[in-house]
Amino acid sequence: MSAPTAPMAAGTSAAEAPRHVVVVGGGPAAHRFAEAMHARGVDGWHVTVLAEEVHAPYDRVALSRALTETETDLSLGDAGLWEHPAITLSTGSRAVSFDPAAQTVTTRAQDGAETTHAYDQLVLATGSNAARLPIPGAEASHVYRTLDDVWALNRETARLKQQLGRPVRAAVIGGGLLGLEAAAGLITLGADATVINGADWLMNTQLDEGAGQALGRLVAAKGMSATAGVFPSAIETDDAGQVTGVLMADGAVVPADLVVVAIGVRPRDELARGADGAAAHGLSLGPRGGVEIDDACATSVPGVWAIGEVASFGGMCLGLVAPANTMAEIVADRLHGGTATFPGFDTATKLKLSGVDVASFGDAFATTEDSLEVVYADPARGVYQKIVTSADAKTLLGGIFVGDASPYTSLRPLLGRELPAGPGAFLSAAGGGDAPAVELPDDAILCSCNNVSAGAIRDAVNGCGTCEGAEPVRDVPGLKACTRAGTQCGSCVPLLKKLMEGELAKSGIAVSKALCEHFDMSRAELFEAVRALELRSFPEILARFGVDGAGSGCDICKPTVASVLASQHSEYVLDAGRGTLQDTNDRALANMQKDGSYSVVPRIPGGEITPDKLAVIAAVAQEYGLYTKITGGQRIDLFGARLEQLPAIWKVLTDAGMESGQAYGKSLRTVKSCVGSTWCRFGVQDSVAMAIALELRYRGLRSPHKLKLGVSGCARECAEARGKDVGVIATADGWNLYVGGNGGATPAHAQLLAKDLDDATLISYIDRYLMYYIRTADRLQRTARWQEELDGGLAHVVDVVVNDSLGIAADLEAAMARHVDSYEDEWAATLADPERLKRFRSFINAPEAADDEIAFVPERGQVRPATVAEKAEGPVLIATHIPVRGAGPGRN
Prior knowledge:
Layout: E1 19-24, H1 28-40, E2 45-51, H2 63-68, E3 87-91, E4 94-99, E5 104-108, E6 114-118, E7 121-124, E8 128-130, E9 142-143, H3 147-164, E10 169-173, H4 177-188, E11 192-197, H5 209-221, E12 225-228, E13 232-237, E14 243-248, E15 253-255, E16 258-261, E17 265-267, E18 291-292, E19 304-306, E20 311-312, H6 321-335, E21 349-350, E22 358-362, E23 372-378, E24 383-389, E25 396-402, H7 408-411, E26 445-447, E27 452-453, H8 454-462, H9 476-483, H10 493-506, H11 523-533, H12 538-545, H13 557-569, H14 584-588, E28 591-592, E29 598-600, H15 611-624, E30 627-630, E31 636-641, H16 646-655, E32 668-673, H17 687-698, E33 707-712, E34 726-731, E35 734-739, E36 751-757, H18 759-776, H19 783-789, H20 793-801, H21 809-822, H22 826-831, H23 834-837, E37 855-859, E38 862-865, H24 868-873, E39 877-878
Parallel strand pairs: 1-2, 1-7, 2-3, 7-19, 9-16, 10-11, 10-16, 11-12, 18-20, 32-33, 33-34
Antiparallel strand pairs: 4-5, 5-6, 8-17, 13-14, 14-15, 21-22, 22-25, 23-24, 24-25, 26-27, 28-29, 29-31, 30-31, 34-35, 35-36, 37-38, 37-39
Helix pairs in contact: 1-6, 8-10, 11-13, 18-21
């Protein structure tokens, strides 16, 4: 291969026309290249990305999620990248030819219009196509490669389910990573899935026979059947073209209504071939297809590069994200005058299947001469672990883990290095205790997807200035943002966290789970200790678990303990000395505003309210001169009440049948609802009734942070349920349950926990989820971050909530039942007790006095707090004390 044309060292000067880089392809490799160019500076360059699909580049690693959650957003990176003036994304543009002599690429749009693009440098990132079966009836099958593929598969499964009136029988041809994920997704959609694998065991490319047999037992336990050792010979259809089954080479027929082919991919190298299919344009092809590259990712044609799945290096094309990212970075580096080289393929793989732990890396089949295999196998449990080393058992060459892949994360960065202990010490399933501590060298790759070394993580933690202007990073989200480690497949996140904590400890920064200086326990540990000993007061808890000489507590531990007690006992939050523990808002049972006044938010379950109650709210607002606002949670907020007015206001509201909305508490706020099937012509379930039931069930539930729920009556998602901590979306067959959605500074979409649930199962799962969160989350930790930082993430949540892997489901449900049975409206309880009412005075020594510093000015027909300047200028509306209801608005 000839060497590429040497690029200018750093683009061109501002006075010259920018050099044009055209990228053919719009997948993850193209996206990473555009990011890499942007990160290095695009002065003097213009990058055009030609994407055949109509979608912006998306995460193919997470494609299986889009099969079951069709509304999920898989877009890669920050969409702002495509708004940069030097970077252009053209979607729906299929490259049909290129001319290296003229340095042009011709694209064809969906309407047939052709466009010619001139280039100075060309990057081929055309990816690959799903391989097709050369058997009769293959045209009736589905493939599993793009968003459109999985969306079509979702629609077809739903159509067949409705047409047949029974679960769809799905056959997935291919027992590799993608085939198993496709089968799992179809099972989630309610289908009965059978995996057909021509080899003798599943994932035969990554696993040896022992591991494959263990995997077979695990997937069978998940309801997935499999046939192995026989190849399909035809896909059978009836006269109408409907699939009826898969004919096997031995004459057997696997009944099927739907067939998915996931047997691998083939590089899309058609631009490099002529009409006869042979190599053209001076480009060399790999022995198995693809465009041949050297270690600079340059092709045999100067100025033309290839990255990702179309690039053939050492005779191989691989459909893995890590080498594609590395190639993209290398080409960007070369175009900026660098000398980076491609080190070869990292073939490590990890199966993304809930409850099925599988990983393979390095020389998993022990092909290295004189290599040694150390194996632990427990076929009955579906557990298989193998470590491959050099003959002296010191150097790690590879490994396979099925059923328990916990050693994989820490071992993979040590590939090719000396193990810190004997290989047997890392076989966790053998019962030998914890694996020895691993100190990763700086050049060890911790995140292979993004080629992030352990040294880069250490630098970020210790404040090397990797992120411009940034302080040393002290948490996992910060490390992700700074280094990109853990932002794709996520398998390195546990090791990322462990390395960060180790570096902090070395720096003398205590990595402590202590709640505060007064308690050396975490909130979760304190919660369980208080529950076990049935403690009921802060002094008892401080005496039993407080640090010696702890004093009287602080503004961290006091409200935390108050929340723990409220979660466990549902007692009036201001009694028995608990009032002094609460935050300002909880002490007033109302939200304090910027001017010292308070807001009043009655509960409106599911957003449903009668005209009579609306009239009461309107009357209160008029009588007390309150500003009114519809909230984002479908309630009405009344602003501008003074502390001593709160009991009188709430007396009117409670007499009308309303109760506290707890807008002031770390507790359930609202359950947002669309109108559902009762009125809406698109609704498939009664979302209003379900929202009201959930709000009345979980009202008053104290938790580490505020909780919001949403219920949508159909997939149109008008209640924005996937932006909530718990989201419920109706289907024709029940309810889909999503968990861990949050807004805020770091928003997160809720993720699917379970599908097509009946009412009772839905409520039991929500009971378990919320109570597990309440017991184990850190102080002020939202559900999204809690779920993300759990070991195992969503898969762990599914195991605990759905599969009851910890055996605590009954206990969690019982705890929620106790809360429901003991619920009491806090304002109704306050109004019923004169002693409790004494708290609501502006001045203790002058109970009839009001704070005349609270003042308002009129605006848009209502009032708002006066500014300091407005108070100085006067006159303003002074909110004076109103001793009894009916005395008028009290404005001067």
